[in-house]
Amino acid sequence: MDATEFRRRGKEMVDLIADYLENIEQRTVYPDVEPGYLRSLIPEEAPEEPDTYEDVVKDVERVIMPGVTHWHSPYFYAYFPTANSFPAMLADMLSGAIGCIGFSWAASPACTELETVMMDWLGKMLKLPEDFIAGTHGQGGGVIQGTASEATLVALLAARCRAVRMILASDPQRPETGINSKLVAYSSDQAHCSVERAGMIAGVRMKKIPTEQSDKYAVQGETLRRMIQEDKAAGLIPFYFCATLGTTPSCAFDHITELGHVSGPALYKIWMHIDAAYAGSSFICPEFRPLLNGIEFADSFNFNAHKWLLVNFDCSTMWVKKRSDLIGAFKMDPLYLKHDHQESVDLFHWQIPLGRRFRSLKMWFVFRMYGLKGLQDYIRKHVELAKEFESLVRADQRFEISADVVLGLVCFRLKGSNEVNETLLKRLNNGRKIHLVPCLLSGQFVLRFALCARTTESRHIREAWQLITQLAEEVMQELPH
Amino acid sequence: MDATEFRRRGKEMVDLIADYLENIEQRTVYPDVEPGYLRSLIPEEAPEEPDTYEDVVKDVERVIMPGVTHWHSPYFYAYFPTANSFPAMLADMLSGAIGCIGFSWAASPACTELETVMMDWLGKMLKLPEDFIAGTHGQGGGVIQGTASEATLVALLAARCRAVRMILASDPQRPETGINSKLVAYSSDQAHCSVERAGMIAGVRMKKIPTEQSDKYAVQGETLRRMIQEDKAAGLIPFYFCATLGTTPSCAFDHITELGHVSGPALYKIWMHIDAAYAGSSFICPEFRPLLNGIEFADSFNFNAHKWLLVNFDCSTMWVKKRSDLIGAFKMDPLYLKHDHQESVDLFHWQIPLGRRFRSLKMWFVFRMYGLKGLQDYIRKHVELAKEFESLVRADQRFEISADVVLGLVCFRLKGSNEVNETLLKRLNNGRKIHLVPCLLSGQFVLRFALCARTTESRHIREAWQLITQLAEEVMQELPH
Lengths: 481, 481
Hints:
Low-confidence stretches of chain A: none
Strand content of chain A: 5-15%
Subunit structure (chains A, B): Homodimer.
Number of helices of chain A: 13
Keywords (chains A, B): Catecholamine biosynthesis, Decarboxylase, Lyase, Pyridoxal phosphate
GO molecular function (chains A, B): aromatic-L-amino-acid decarboxylase activity; pyridoxal phosphate binding
Largest sheet of chain A: 7 strands, mixed
Oligomer: homodimer
Distance between the termini of chain A: 62 Å
Radius of gyration of chain A: 24 Å
Helix content of chain A: 40-55%
Cofactor (chains A, B): pyridoxal 5'-phosphate
Shape of chain A: globular
Pathway (chains A, B): Catecholamine biosynthesis; dopamine biosynthesis; dopamine from L-tyrosine: step 2/2
Number of strands of chain A: 11
Strand order of the largest sheet of chain A: 1-7-6-5-4-2-3
Largest interface: A-B, 152 and 153 residues
């Protein structure tokens, strides 16, 4: 395919995309296929000679679409949102065409520099403390990671490196190899599974801090303080705490000001990382910004702009107060990556992979095409829709709300057994009209209703509720309540 | 921006992309900017109200392009190639629109299933042993990672997990915490810096195996065997060896058959991972496939289809013989990720991040639009051009070839001091007509000429050589030779 054919096929693809998104509501949100469905629909091997483009495009509808879970359908309420906007898609097309691999400044200066400035733009939207802004002389700054999992891991590795250095500085005779086995990290028992996984990867202990329904599933400063004291008494070395703002099960918020006083530099020199993967986007609204109070105690902060800020995946935005902490943990300098401007920022020192796409173009297009106000409106619309759904649930005596509705997630359940709720969810998903996933809160099986699609409106919410109550009625008649 | 405007702007973007790539030759391949150039060209904060799309697009040329290193210019010979093809860009547009996050099978069955089948297609093109093919009943299979760095790390983590399990199985009383500090991994001193970094991340020793120019920079089985024996005698536990096929400095090939006999299951139960990041694509040609002989000894194998196989970044293709080894190292099963088809493949257990894009669409479009023959032709053309460049170098008595030219990389230098070669490279890059990066081989500063762009032709090679000889003449006249 040459450029001339691309001009034609590209324009057809633009129409195919617009058609798909304009009519997505008419598709079954959750696919009706069994594992292995696809293999029999296509050949067992790649063709020797080229297929025609017409055949390839025809197969998108025949082979792919029947197995797609439509994350951008207004009937999709599962997990958390993933962003999808037209400006982001346009920027991504451009990024693909430029196709630079921006590991170092020299590998494409624009790629590194736009990223640093866009992270400053976003940091200012969030009113982050000055420490986190790169500016022209700052010691901190931001970087785009692929996912929150990677940000959590990168922060943990930087924390480990800092801790080992501090220990060796105070006790140079201590053998370095034994230190790792004494290190201990902490996170909430509500934290995302990737936090526990980060500990596994780095080969360090990760302790889960218990939370209570009565505390709204937030980690209490006192609990963390006690665990740290016990571990220190047992000869362990606490070095990292991952706080969560907006947990995956119920969108709970740890009290980071209180926790900051425990883990902050004054007392224990524990690295505090804040994972606000979902909730972070909302902090651009003044009314939600207080949820981030205490950020001044953190060493690093991350959220997924690719979740709720209209920037298509992947764009997980992470800031650190001291970039030297990150860079020091990873620095590798082979000659083939050196260049004449070593004083510049080389972002591969900030992340696990070496290669990186030109992802800041998406931020640039989206921030400019929506403006801060447009982005705020978008967040507020989802929160309002969640409140509307909450009211519907609260108005029905058979149901209960299982956790505070702060942003765009409503956790709810039928009063009664886990079994009845499990059956209800199964029926809902098997109906394939709407799609939800569950969570477990204090042993209770709970349904999560997450506002996800850009195009979800009040009528979709009411339609979803009607379906839920209708199936609930059926389930309750069948099962002992 | 709504779908109607996207139809218009998307088509304009398709033309902008086609224009950019058709005329890329006329741009300066290596940008003439200083660190910090971009910040002053744009506002310090995001706009409150939306900008117009016209302004955004105008700024692409004003703000971005002056700072782009044009990786797809036929004058770009730096690093290694990164892929860029029209079918891949079309597929990526579609992937962005579907915008599913395919962490689990249920999160979008098509995303997981097409990936597994595409990895089988590619595995068959490479004539991988049956063990690495998923098929319908295989124990192995493939997965798309973001980068080779991640594949190396994932393999190392799986190896660590398997080693710890084996040790605990044979000695259940042994405390698990101490094992990590006894583990030792190996790689060539020519291996990519990300291999050493993988060891740092996992907190395990990584030893570099010395190589010699006389052995063509390949790791010798005897050297590895000796190091393993010494380490075992010292109470350490060898568990992982990363072999390289096509090293970054000089495209050297470790002798994996010989090494496989050392690290293979029979003798030491060491996990052998093969990193063929660049060279891997060439193994689809029968004449280069012998370079992969010995693959049967490997536990895992990876190369970057996004480098040399026309599939745009990111698409780092990795296979394992036993997927249970990978999955076991990472498995996390929170309720919000469970679904009714737990017998299916959930690819987030195979990787560091949780989220993942629908990247296999790019493979599907590219394999079908080129066909195997088209892909082979593409590889062969680059190798031929490299041979042509090699001939030009060899015909000039002032220069020498510094390493065997096997694929699309030519390592060469002026006979003489490192200083004269450093000066030559500096002049070349400052001239900004062509772009190369150096490497260090046996203490010698060497210029790397890597065939990169899809559109590079013989005339570009000859033009580059003319420029090199012209600047070499200048440099030699100025510096004592």
